[in-house]
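#structure-requests
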Amino acid sequence: MGYTSVCCVVLNSAELYTPLTLTFSASSLNFGLLQIGLTSPPKTVTVTNVSSHSATFSSIASSGDFAQSNHCPTTLNAGQNCTITVTFTPTAAGTRTGAVTLTDNCPGSPTQTIALTGVGESGALGFTPASLNFGNVLVGSHSIQSATLTNDGAAPVNITGIAISPANATFTQTNNCPATLNVQQTCTFQVTFTPPDVFTYNATLSVTNSANGPATLPLSGTGRG
């Protein structure tokens, strides 16, 4: 979703301020899951000067585990646009955040930012969300939640086994995963929690695979009377 940055520039003593308006095709970019050390496919944002005056950029820079390149001139004339291309290379596991910051000649607000986020995974396979908590569920009834498994590695991964531990009827699963999950392909797990008693239950859904250690999804829930 895009956004608009409205500022002003001083023209002369007769004209105090006049609007300087930049629009961005996206206010933020989410790169999703990616294996640590790999570089994502690029995402782009278009910057358009919709005002009647030129915008002058003194810098365009990225931060965090993100890199940017751009085709923006130093001066973006009225009606012109340019593109910023961003890639994500996670250096650690977990949520990674950063921004592309544009510094320009807007005297009131000289910086505009594009928020960036992504999740680093140590293995090729990762779950979104990272865990499922079913909360309080009436004993004898059930609750269903879903999780998405993504291959964020550099090569196809063979799924060799799927199991919930400890194995009992408290947590069960169904899925639409193929035998081989291609790069950036996803599949979905439906997990059902059926508490047999008033108690807090914990389990782990594990997906063994040909890449490295199993992808795991912690499960928790409490039975209520």
